[in-house]
Amino acid sequence: MAGGAVLLSNSLLGHVTMAAPHERVNLACVGIGNRGAEIIKALYKTGLCNVVALCDVDLGASQTEEILKLFPDAKRYQDFRRMFDEMDTQIDAVSIGTPDFAHFAITMTAMDLGKHVYVEKPLAHTFNEVELLMAKADKNPKVVTQMGNQGHSEANYFQFKTWKEAGIIKDVTRIDAHMNMRRRWHGWDPQIKGFPYPERIPETLDWDLWQMHTLGHHYNPDFVNGQWRCWYDFGMGALGDWGAHILDTAHEFLELGLPTEVEAIMLEGHNSFFFPMSSTIRFKFPQRAKMPAIEINWYDGLDNLPPIPEGYGVSGLDPNIPPPSTGKLEPVKLNPGKIIYSKDLTFKGGSHASTLEIIPEAKAKDLANKLPEVPETTSNHFANFLKACKGEEKTRSSFAVAGPLSQVFCLGVISQRLNTKLVFDRERKEITNNKFANALLTGPAPAKGWEQYYTV
User: Fold this and answer.
1) Which of 94, 228, 388, 391 minimizes the number of CB atoms within 10 Å of its CB?
2) pLDDT tens digits, residue range 167-189?
3) Order of strands, edge to edge, in the sheet holding 145-147?
């Protein structure tokens, strides 16, 4: 790794055992407020990296203050392009904690320069962007990639993998996934007819750079600091926000790949600008080798709950779900998670690191002595990435794993946006029953000056 340590200024992270400076990964961080800040702190807390550069379109915002104070010696940039130009030889890896739509250009640039990348979930905003990121990763095999669904290195990952290999999880035919916590836009008027009115741009914010390839929107505070998640132009709603924390292990270990059909079954408050207040989306995956076809039903919205099987038990607030950067988790009717139905068994699972339970309890007791021992993780998601950068491990959520999962969510968002059923050709990667939906796999052409990022 390149030399030169940037030391922490205070003890907000608690005790951190650091490797020697020359043994650490030199890390540049793009997006340093809100969730981006949490990523940076978690990466640094491993003791495996130096934070050498901080980049954010609004370095004067309140949400960026903490990270700037924690790393006072790191070089500061507002534009990621200038950061790469000036610090190319001093950077080994990059963390990208920007809004969904802004992941793509930064990640493509980093990989072109041979930098390892940790990218928050979902991987990108459109199906085609994810496709290009996977292709770029294939073209640059020495570049380490990791998507930031942190539960993919925790207990749920190792349990699902072990139970699948031991034949405990087999012949799965249906999964009901659900996220019924409050989202920022649930209280909005579903009859909204357009984007919010323009407001004065904060003096510290580079609004054009914030928009990147989506140039053309007027500034409004309802577009930034997490609110971007609810707009089709910027985010991927509850599905993109939580899907990778709930369906990641099932998608990988059941080898789901891409669906053949995606259908919006129920949308409450459907409109052309922001995500519905509640959604039910059905995904159909074909038979794979000896595994049967699977139907996945996604439920979001405060009261849009899946059918609850007998013996489900109580669903309290899951301690494995980290609180949002904006505050505490609120009590909910049903904890975020999934119900997995197989030929012989039913499993109840949560989100992130939460492990599966066999339900009802009587069935779980019958099988208790037959369950295999589950290994413990050797590294959390952040250490896994940094150790992979050093050649010591392989990332668990590389673009090859996380890319198709993110594309599933991209297809789900198109069905939400158009309130329709999509028929998808998995081999040609095309929507065959709707030309406009198929065009949304790529989305609008990038604004002038951003076209160069869309080539491998």
Assistant:
1) 391
2) 999 999 999 999 998 876 656 66
3) 75-77, 49-55, 25-30, 93-96, 116-119, 145-147
pTM beyond cutoff 0.85: yes
Which residue in the block uniquely carries the two structure tokens 């294939």? Answer: 138
What is the C-alpha separation between 36 and 16, in angstroms, rounded?
Answer: 19
Tokens of 104: 């793509």
Structure tokens, 149: 């669904």
Please report the domains of the chain, with CATH numbers, ordered by start residue: 21-151+395-406 (3.40.50.720), 152-189+242-376+410-425 (3.30.360)
Average pLDDT of every residue of the chain: 93
Q: Which residues contact 337 (CB under 8 A, 6 or more apart)?
A: 177, 178, 246, 315, 318, 348, 349, 350, 351, 354
> With 90 as the cut, is the pLDDT of residue 60 above it?
yes
- Chain position carrying tokens 């405990």: 168
- What one-character-per-residue DSSP string does 322-334 give? PPPTTSPPPP-SS
Instruction: Note the helical H segments in 198-280.
Output: 207-211, 237-246, 248-253
Pairing type for strands 116-119 and 75-77 reads unpaired
Using the predicted structure, report yes or no on whether residue 9 has a pLDDT greater than 60.
no
Enclosing H/E stretch for 136: helix 127-139
Largest CA distance in the chain: 64
Specify whether the CB–CB gap between 28 and 55 falls below 8 A.
yes
Alpha carbon distance 101, 129 (integer Å): 9
Q: What 3-state class would DSSP assign to 100?
A: helix
pLDDT digits (tens, 9 = 90+) for 136-174: 999 999 999 999 999 999 999 999 999 999 999 999 999
CA-nearest of 387, 291, 336 to 92 is 387
Q: Are 168 and 366 in contact (CB under 8 A)?
A: no
User: Residue 329's pLDDT band (boundaries 50, 70, 90)?
Assistant: low
Are 261 and 304 spatial neighbours (Cβ–Cβ below 8 Å)?
no
Rounded to whole angstroms, the Cα distance separating 352 from 338 reads 11
Q: Tell me if 180 sits within 8 A of 301, measured CB to CB.
A: yes
Tokens of 105: 């250009």
Residue type, 274: F
